[in-house]
Amino acid sequence: MNKQLVAIVDDEPDILELVSLHLKRSNFNTREFTEAEPFYRFLSKEVPDLIILDLMLPDVDGFEICKYLRGQERFASIPIIMLTAKTEETDKVIGLELGADDYVTKPFSTRELVARVRAVLRRHGKKEEEVKKISVSDFVSIDLDKYEVEAEGKKIDLTPTEFKILQLLAAKKGRIQTRDQILDFLWGEEKFVIDRTVDVHIRHLREKLGKFSGIIKNVRGVGYKIEE
Questions:
Q1: Which of 62, 98, 219, 227 has its CA at 20 to 30 Å from residue 202's CA atom?
Q2: Residue 99 is part of which domain span?
Q3: How distant is the alpha carbon of residue 74 from its chain centre?
Q4: Do 55 and 91 touch, CB atoms closer than 8 A?
């Protein structure tokens, strides 16, 4: 079985070495970058399974890299974990709104980071065995084989987290899913994120659904659901 490839972008050599070492011990392959430009050159040749991205880089802001990746069809579905020394919630929210799947604040536990990597990759790769397609509404459908969402026959590029949230709500159509239930579905026992994270992903998901955003209903103080 081929080892999954994780690209790490951080301008601190000690952080790069530490993260890479622990990921390799956990049976991952890694590529390390201290600046954005060599990382972009790498992407022209290889597509990693996951990206660990520091927000504070010397040449290009990590937010810009995240925005670029989500705007390219080739890279749009790659899971992204942000690494940041910033503790302000607004920075985390901005990163999530740009399409990051998770965040880890420095200083961090390498054990926790590896657990996050495994959880995000597991969530991204998990597909239903029996049901290959889910009808979200008359105009929106999910193809679990292709890992794609279509609205009126047009493909909508979602992040892995957005895809899984829509998949859950569609599979539980008509039933309210609380924020905790959504987080449990995404992370299981490896749940590290705050409830606010769900709201950010839902808002981003609605924006991408455009005129079909109304299929996701907000039940105030409880959670979200898709109507029958």
A1: 62
A2: 5-125
A3: 15
A4: yes
